[in-house]
Fold these 4 entries.
Entry 1:
Amino acid sequence: MKFLIVDDDENICKILTFYLDLYGQCHACSRASEAILLFRNALETEPFDVVFMDIDMPEMTGHELVTILRGAEETQKVPFHKTFKLVMVSAYDDIKNVTASFFRGHAECFVPKPVTESRILEALRQADILK
């Protein structure tokens, strides 16, 4: 499994990488522009299976970034069943952001911060991303 972790808090990137490293290859970045470049390059060779996305970031919101990543998949004509699984990770657990994550971004799950290993793994198992 191949993971892309996008969070402007580098500590969150390190924590998620630590928890997920046992389950696959992790790539983490703290800037939206870097995430777009990594994602587009991966589409050419070995796409990401799962994207972990923060909502509140300096360059653009996580919702905006997800729209760009989904658009890149559409441009490459990635079949729906092969599109990345989205996990939103955020301190914002209000209904507006949670709803936007699921309906606009087609998220499989939403994990509130602070992230813990049990929260992450439980969410991934409930979403059938991990067995």
Entry 2:
Amino acid sequence: MRTRRRQQPVRAALALLLGLLLILLTCTAHANDSPPPVPGVPPPSVPAIAHTWPVGSHPLVLRGWEPPATVYGRGHRGVDLATPAGAEVRAVAAGRVSFAGRVAGRGVVAVELSGTDLRTTYEPVTASAKKGDEVTAGQVVGTVEITGSHCATTCVHWGLLRGETYLDPLALLPPWLLSRGPSRLLPVL
């Protein structure tokens, strides 16, 4: 009986040491893992390289990005930005126009962003830029068409792709460009 009582503290100490060792090994194994995503901060795979919004200075987002569960699944593969018909559409970052034409009756402009494997798309747009044109951030690539939008009001659909994978185009915008200004407390009604 005495031997058992002496062994219990030793076993407890060994269990504690094994637990601490397991925690240490787990922490070391995950030391190089990426940190969890922070809301409002773009993931590292999409650099915040945009210098401007495609339309206006801070347009209303009518519908946000909703990634599909599968390649052909339902979702919204970009963001819809409220803007009047005829408004100028600008390249958000420097790049080369890879497409300027019509797809399914809508005008589309696509820009491959310099120094990345990303491309942005804008529709419905009457292109003023041509395929192969080098564009700078903020340069006009077209104007918003009156018809062809899938929004209830006139809008431009802004997309972002890496290869054939759709990404959230808002991730291109640095936090200062996403912000509408300082936070303000409103009265409770």
Entry 3:
Amino acid sequence: MASLGSGCQSLQKLDRGIYRVADSVSETDQVTGRRSLSFAARSEQIAQGNSYIEKLLAAETKAGRPVDAALDKKQYLRLIRVFDRVHAVSHLRRERWQPVLLDRDSFNAFTTGGTYIVVHRGLMQQLQSDDELAAVLGHEIAHTVANHVFERQSHVQLSTLAGSRSARRGSYQSAFTHENEREADRIGILYSALAGFDPLASSRIWQRQYIKEGTGRALRFHDHPVNTERQQEAAAVGRKVAGYYRAGQQNPAYPQLLQSNVLWRQSQSAAPGEGGGVSALFDTVLGAYVQHQVAKQEERRQAAEIRRIKALETRLKQPQFKKVSERQLKASWYYQAGSPELQSVIMGLLVKRNEQVERYIAHVPGRVTAGRRFSVSFTLPVGLTVDQLQQLPLKFYLDDARQVL
């Protein structure tokens, strides 16, 4: 007959074995303390993520395109200065990271799960303050902290092996990424506040992008929150973490605040052999299931929004277009009688030029009332006239609208 002690040792051994299994397909989320899917260890993530960036940098050198200080010394030094402050209060502050400035006009920055952060010069030029830059850099660091690149890969692989039809849908994949983007925004705003940057700066970025770009809601499923939603959520998160903000100064309590704050509280798990194995396995399975359900819910929400906008679009009748000046086009529509009154209406224009599809938007002032015409003016960019536009394939569409309650 086995002794009580040997029975306990067997259970401890089993629990440690279960932990090794769970640890091979997941990791401890540095933000929440819970388990998240990941088939790659951090060393593998760094090697794979950095390999992609190093090939990109080699291609830039081969093409004769300068990077970093050789491209724009002033913006590169600004990038380094702001990045160092944000990185210093992040969960990955002990890793040696390298910011990279590329010669691109686009409003973009990205990471690949390694220790590089790539920023386009166009983004640096468009951001109006270091506070806004800090929010963007915090967001990108957060993607790696939360292991979004490899978590998504692992989730898709596991879902495919499990025979999930959802994982094969592009709309589901967009929704899954959409939720990761929301999480990165929240983490990034906290980082910027802890580093001494205004946590409301992020909301100002997306308010500006909304005025400039509209939403693009009706065009397709989106893997980033649309500008209106992003602005509203960023403002709400910024207000929540405002108490941690010390203008221009690092919050001295940042190590503790990374573990417990108004956005999350890290959970503590038992050690392997002491119930940690069972806990890790349960956490991994539950976490993957919850992510799957949240992504499906977001997929359904986006589908409903697309249907709503397209239903409203069918109520726009008798389109008329008129040249106002060389680069200004006035368009008007009759809004069908019996339709709900609308506000915050945005009309979009798609133009195919030089094998590229360009998108222009215009905000309709005031409210749109049923049974009347409304009009809006599109201002075209330098190099494209209304006469040229009329010779190109184009399409007008309803970008977004809110029903007056």
Entry 4:
Amino acid sequence: MRTWLPLVIVVSLISLGLWFTESPPKQLLGKTPTQQQHNKAPDLVIRGARTRHYSAEGTLAYQVDAERITFFQFDRRDRADLTEPRMIFYQGDDSKWRTESRSGVAINNGQRVVLKGDVTITELPQPGITLRTENIVLKPREEFAETNKVVTITDGANRTTGKGMRADLKQDKVEILSDVESSYEPR
């Protein structure tokens, strides 16, 4: 009987070890993760991210750089949380517009990007116009931006403020929607 005891102990330890490695968390912790907890876990986190996006013709359309991108994949859509995103839009071989903000959210593979916190859109090359607001929605593939927040546009010493804006970055057209005030200094 003594000869079987070590063998039973070894088999028991191996079985117990396999059970622990194969057991889902609910059996180990006594809890079942909720759907919200599953949704909160990111699928991918990238630090020092740099992406390039090309037009149908194969030319560089825009690039996105961010300190961190946290990507979530859901059943019907995806979302990427951006930390300190910077975007540059190109027209031909030249960079035309640069955006910066504290944070952002890209939805459905970047079809819609919401930038938040000290948003700045700068025309390149400088000197050019600069738009500032707290929150803006971009449609990068269409090179379109809009907001319902207060916007300040500066061009050298000239300054325009208003509430709400639509900007067609491809056509270099900016429209302030209401409460427009301007100050202009002749050169």
